[in-house]
Each structure stands twice: as C-alpha cells, then as structure tokens.
Design goal:
It is built from 8 helices and 16 strands. With 285 residues, it is α/β, with parallel strands linked by helices. A hairpin with a 4-residue loop joins strand 10 and strand 11.
C-alpha cells in the first residue's frame, strides 16, 4: 500500500527526534556480556540516535567503545551502580534498562518519554515479554506484567493487581517493571536507589517514590523482550537475598508478591544477607 508523506508525518518525526534527544539510556551490567551485547545491538537497530551509558561492576569487565562505558568498583551492586549512572545523566529524562532485555518492534520508547515530557507522569513504564527457550532456536513468548498497587496491612507490604485509574494512554499505579522513562530531577531528588541494597531494590525504590508523591504509570502497548538470563558465574551473586533488609527499610516485616509468596530468596543456595553479614566474595573461589 502506497503511503503519501504528509506534513503530519514530518511533525511526528520531529517530535520523536526531540523526545529522544532529551533521553539517556542507563544500563547497569554484571557478568552478562552476551546479554549486554544483544541489548545494545537491538538498541542501535531501533534507536541509533539514543545516548547510552553502561555501568559495569563485573569481576570480568566488558569494556565497549560504542557507548559511554563506566567501569565501576567490582560488585558494587545494582543500586549503587544505577546511582553512579544517574549522576552522569545530562538530559532531563532517562530510560532504565536491565542488561538482559532486548528491543523489538513494540518497544516504542517515545511513547513513554511523551508521557513524562507532557507532565502526565514522573515515571512511565512498559511491559515485559518473557522469552523462554523451548528447543534449539525455538522460543516461546508470554507477557510478564508487574504493574500494580501497594496494600499495607498486617505489618506487610502486599502487591496487588490493579491501578488507581486509567488515563488517556496509561494506568496510574504504585509499582511497575524497572523498564521505564523517568524525570532525571525527580529521581535525583528521591535519592536514587538505596546503595545498601545490592539486589532486591525494586519494591523499596517504588515505595519511596510513591511516598514522595511521584506519579507512576504503565503503558501496556510498550513492550521489551526479557531473556531472564542466568549464565554460569552470575547466579551465586544474583541469589544473595536482601529482601529482609529491604522490608525493614520500607517499615514492614515482609513483602508479599502478587501470588501470595513472601519474598525471602530468589533462587537455590541463596544467602540471606541479614542473617549472614555480607562478606567480600572471591571471584576465583
């Protein structure tokens, strides 16, 4: 079908270019160089103009010349690493990404940036599409929603499905995936992420955001692929549990997930960091 280029097309293109020029991509990475490479290649395919900052605290660094690469202290943790990236942002907005994500045709970042740029939201998030390998190169995809509300009762924080109300293009929520565009000044005023939480920072970050009055929203039509990668040499660090420390910072005894599970550990052989004081882990061990 022939498409006739019109002035409205030009205006949309100009608006998109402006929004993207106001946005910096932040990626904190640790021991997953193949995942990081897949993400950056997909970013360059769909958004070659975006500025990218990568913070790497791995024991085996993966320096790159095609992005703004920041070598962080080893095993500084996801929160401190994100804060180090946030300090270097020079644009009014930033896009937060984990290193095991991948852009595809439904990853429309400008739709998120527009909500923030127009003052509708302080944090505008999209959805995950989880990738599960079935056989060789055959993969299965399914939606992996995480947006919802906070329910404080019985000295617990319970995550429940739902939203406060539906805006024109978004749902107003309390928590979303950490795949979002946010106002740089708002997150800096919040203090960024708590550096004591090397992992399991998610709920604590959004609780503070809501308590400070930030508007958090979710667009169901903006998606990113999530590979949920667990390579060798990564899991023993990923499975250190900071859930109990995070719960205390929130002011509750425990955080309860959408399926009624109490957040304690994330994988086999996990170390609960409150019960066993953190120690310096030897990568060669």
């Amino acid at each position: 079908m022939l498409h006739i280029f019109t002035p409205s097309d030009s205006a949309r293109s100009t608006d998109r270019a402006h929004l993207l020029s106001q946005t910096t991509v932040l990626i904190k990475t640790f021991q997953r160089p193949k995942d990081l490479d897949r993400l950056i290649r997909s970013l360059r395919r769909y958004y070659p103009e975006l500025q990218i900052l990568v913070g790497d605290d791995g024991f085996q660094p993966s320096p790159r010349s095609d992005v703004g690469y920041i070598r962080l202290p080893e095993d500084i943790g996801v929160s401190a690493g994100r804060n180090a990236l946030l300090e270097r942002v020079k644009t009014p907005y930033f896009l937060m990404l984990d290193d095991d994500l991948e852009f595809f045709r439904k990853t429309k970042i400008e739709k998120l940036t527009q909500l923030v740029d127009q003052g509708e939201l302080d944090i505008a998030a999209g959805n995950y599409v989880k990738i599960k390998r079935k056989l060789f190169f055959i993969h299965r995809r399914r939606l992996q929603p995480y947006h919802g509300l906070f329910d404080f009762r019985d000295n617990q924080l319970r995550l429940v499905r739902g939203s406060h109300y539906q805006g024109k293009d978004y749902l107003l929520c309390d928590i979303t995936h950490q795949f979002f565009v946010a106002r740089t000044d708002a997150i800096r005023a919040l203090g960024g992420w708590d550096p004591e939480l090397r992992m399991n920072d998610h709920e604590e970050f959004f609780v503070r955001a809501r308590r400070q009055g930030l508007r958090i929203g979710y667009r169901s039509d903006v998606m990113v692929l999530h590979w949920n990668s667990r390579p060798a040499g990564y899991c023993k660090f990923r499975y250190r549990s900071y859930h109990q420390i995070a719960a205390k910072k929130i002011g509750v005894e425990a955080v309860v997930g959408y399926q009624g599970q109490v957040y304690t550990v994330d994988g086999p052989g996990a170390t609960i960091m409150e019960q066993m004081p953190p120690v310096r882990l030897n990568w060669a061990a």
